[in-house]
Amino acid sequence: MGKEIRFGVIGAAYMGKAYAIALSSVSTIFELPVRARLEMIATTDAKGAEKKAGAFGFARSTGDWRKLVADPDVDVVGIGSPTWLHKEMALAAIAAGKPVLCEKPLSLSARDAHDMALAAERAEVKTLVGFNYMRNPATQLAKQMIEAGEIGDVIHFRGTHNEDYLMDPSSPMNWRLKAKYASRAGALGDLASHIVNLAHYLCGPIVEVVGESQTVHKARPAEGGVLEPVENDDQTNFLAKFMSGALGAFEASRIAAGRKMGLTYEVTGTKGALFFDQERLSELQFYSAGDASNRRGYRTLLIGPEHPDYGSFCIGAGHGFGYNDMIVVEMKDMILGVTEGKPLWPTFRDAVHTASVVDAVLRSQDERRWVKISEIVGELS
Length: 381
Prior knowledge:
- The chain is of the alpha/beta class.
- It has helices at residues 14-29, 46-56, 65-70, 86-95, 110-123, 137-147, 179-182, 187-190, 192-203, 323-340, 348-367, 373-378; strands at 4-10, 35-42, 60-62, 76-79, 100-102, 127-129, 154-162, 206-214, 219-221, 227-229, 235-242, 247-253, 262-269, 272-277, 283-288, 299-302, 371-372.
- It has two domains: 4-132, 3-Layer(aba) Sandwich (Rossmann fold); 137-280 and 282-320, Dihydrodipicolinate Reductase, domain 2 (2-Layer Sandwich), CATH 3.30.360.
- Strand 9 (219-221) and strand 10 (227-229) form a beta hairpin.
């Protein structure tokens, strides 16, 4: 590895570009033991990959992801491809002994996630899953405040992830709407998984769920204008119980009019509460019952250099933090995990919990009952 850690990235669309942006800047923003190198990018087309390599700054390219995984000059594999491809790609990288950063959802099912986690553990390969929202300094601060007891014992978590990118019923059919490629969990798998991960990070594991999902636009135009059935949900709601005894309420939608990044969470404790809205990335709302009775109310904590990771980006509080910045932090953590053995979270094993919650919600809506997460996990071993 020497003075550089060489990344190979599979996929050049939304997340492939985000990875390239992060890798291009992470060594400038953070003091690291090695510099990140954009070694190779892979897409399904050799010419397209070459074009993206030039645009994104990769040294090399290939139209075959297997060549990237096998290349001796690639130290870490980043997987930014669609969900149905994750398992095969990750298992190949693990078999080659290479650390893997894989986008979320990790897989199409808890079973596949378990198989991927088990393979990584047996090979003693470092893994990280791209639930990047928990790397926002505001959420890292919330984690610190909860662990310090500033809001007392957590008794309730409420989370949303609502967007409107499929609100228009004439929006064309795509792979995210097909069970074969994205699973039966639509908004549940693609969006609610982020909130499940955040809830796990802030409040601990979930032990039981009951839920309902709905497909509002049941068919969408495919090639030639022919309508094809949508095979997963547009919106979902579920209740949860945490191992700690806290209760939770979750909702997610891909058809929520006016919501562009409606990811929010509210953590209520016995002494106060925290509220976060991702459309206001650099703010955390804090309520303390310890305030004088005539001064009680949520107050805004502006994120600044005294909070985790922010100071490496900017020396002024309240100047803002962005989506790509969270992925830069993710790359920093991955590099330190690989080079210095720092703990990584969420690993493939942590993502098994997220996938198990999603599968439990699917079972709950099928069987019209509360489902314990242990039911799902027990079937994996």
